[in-house]
Fold these 2 entries.
Entry 1:
Amino acid sequence: MRIVKATLTPLRLELLQPLKTARGTYSAREGFLVRLEDEEGRVGLGEAMPLPEFGTESLPVCGEVLAAWLSSLEGQFLGDTVRAVEDTLSPFPPTVARGEGVRVRARHPAPPGPVPAAEHALELALLDLLARRQGVPLCWLLAEEARPEVLVNALLSGETAEALVDEARVAVAEGYGTLKLKVGGRALEEDEQRVKAVREAVGPDVKLRLDANGGWTELEAKRALDKLGWYQLELVEQPTPPDDLAALWRVQRRAPCMVAADESLGSPETLRALLGSDPLLGGGPAVGAVVLKPMVLGGLLPGLVVAMRAARLGMQAYVTSSLDGVVARAGAAHLAAALPSGALASGLAVGKLFKSEPAEHDYRPLHGRIRLPETPGLGLDAGAVV
Ligand SMILES: O=C(O)CCC(=O)C1=CC=C[C@@H](O)[C@@H]1C(=O)O
Ligand SMILES: [Mg+2]
């Protein structure tokens, strides 16, 4: 394929109401849309929505790096293969690369640190364009046996128990079978009140997952899960700080539910340790599941590699958005469809948080699921996503 045009457009998503987490409060998200056009006028879309608190690069670095890479890509020929996409994203110099891609990175000074959001945007746009040229949904490039639909959890963003109960009732009525609540950053009694109220409102069959965003110490996590474990939790995301894998493993050993490592995957060193079988961690899996954020991991392909390695160690995997736009969420849905297992719901129902969410698109959850469009690539219309 020949990239005849490569454009970068700033993207700002205002939230309808601030989302409070143990790691900070979000009122808007800022990033970039990447458009790649081939010689026949097809357009591949990608999105960068940096999340520095999860280990990605900053917004300015992301914009700078993407502008440089796209300037080198414009006018170039790439092989019509996934390998060409991997080579184009490869940080290694041409001498060790396999050569079907375009060495965009080697033509510019190396960025100050990891740039996963920029990698994610370029990779997604290339995969979207490649799948459109091959006439297949993007997930078929990732796995031939990709599932046609993915389970999605609802994210409850209310502050009070009453607000959460109202949201939970609406979500269950809409068909969601898994609800996610933020915990941590407040008194444990308050969190217990919120979780108890939601559990009593939805009954025993709806799955409840919590997300502490690394906000508890190891002792607080143990005390919290001793209390909250009475409300039949499916899992708890990142109960303790991201860099201490041994603490995460000790909490998992006593927890009444699966622990899912999330922020821990944002540090290459911690991710490597998580995917190794460290004898200090008993030689087995440190946690029950890993959260795949393609924006944090540098794309769908790295996400798939992490899922495969985690599965070999006995860890489950699911995908979540990085509070990003429709394009990134569409890519995440295709990754979710390609994972070895679809048992755990994906966190892709965040569109309702944004003021400018497009009214109609194929990645709006329906009855707690996203049915992937059968159209080539992501199947998104470039004009409809901003
Ligand atoms: O998982 C979901 O349902 C939505 C995504 C989500 O909760 C998050 C996205 C990005 C940052 C965090 O606030 C949070 C998370 O930690 O998983
Ligand atoms: Mg999380």
Note: The chain has a mean pLDDT of 94.
Entry 2:
Amino acid sequence: MAPIATETFNTKRDGQALEETSDAIDEVNVLKATNKDLYEASEFDKNKDKTQFRQYEDACDRVKNFYKEQHTKQTVAYNLKARHEFHRKTRAEMTVWQAMEKLNTLIDESDPDTSLSQIEHLLQSAEAIRRDGKPRWMQLTGLIHDLGKLLFFFDARGQWDVVGDTFAVGCAFDDRIIYGRDSFCDNEDFGHEIYDSKFGIYSPGCGLDNVMLSWGHDEYLYHIAKEQSTLPAEALAMIRYHSFYPWHNAGAYHELMDDHDRDMLRAVKAFNPYDLYSKSDDIPSIEELKPYYLELIDEYFPNKVIKW
Ligand SMILES: O[C@H]1[C@H](O)[C@@H](O)[C@H](O)[C@@H](O)[C@H]1O
Ligand SMILES: [Fe+2]
Ligand SMILES: [Fe+2]
């Protein structure tokens, strides 16, 4: 009796194994079809009228006043203090989704292109990446990239140390920053012998890891994601540099880069259209998308509750 039972059992198992193998092959094929390489050309922004975005000269006073304040107050001294404060404590403990919900009440004063809530902007970015069949880690990066704006509810002194484009502090204010070099005329580092000289406190090719970028949501979330997620280096670069338009869009600060930064620049450029041009997409349904993204978050954040 026993051998027959075993045989039956084995046959059953083989059948099941075969089925499982063909399921796995199907899955791989689906993945191949949908999981496009990060750098593969995209149709996503083909029909977007790019002249409609980031028109800072025509922007309203809210945006102009924001940048005047940011450019005046982001000094070397402030940046050293902000980093020290950041490492000193945990501000809150909550899940990624709770953080997205908390952020919902913030309307970003620096942004001329959207008046949607942040959760909607995050879902628009993630969905654009997902629709394009890009890697899952990149979809998640789209979903969380602006979560650093949570800072506003903790230690921030206003919006000027949370949102807006970023630039390097400790070296010359570059003309390719929004509103140009002169917009820094009231910054205490303006005209400073070292902080406003070409390389300032840095040296050629020192690598952007060693460069202090104006403190805000990018820098803050970068540290959190680096320490508490398993996201790849490209994702961390997309987070840290996505607002660094003078660098990834206008070609400034390239003399400070090292080889790693050159690779990361490609990744940041691949990410940028989804952040910027998805702002004109349809408003996503939060409740419908929630289950998909909750699973995705769990994949890369081993601890559900994040220390913010
Ligand atoms: O106004 C926007 C907004 O604050 C974004 O989150 C930031 O990444 C951009 O660089 C900035 O220009
Ligand atoms: Fe951002
Ligand atoms: Fe964004």
Note: The longest strand covers residues 93-94.
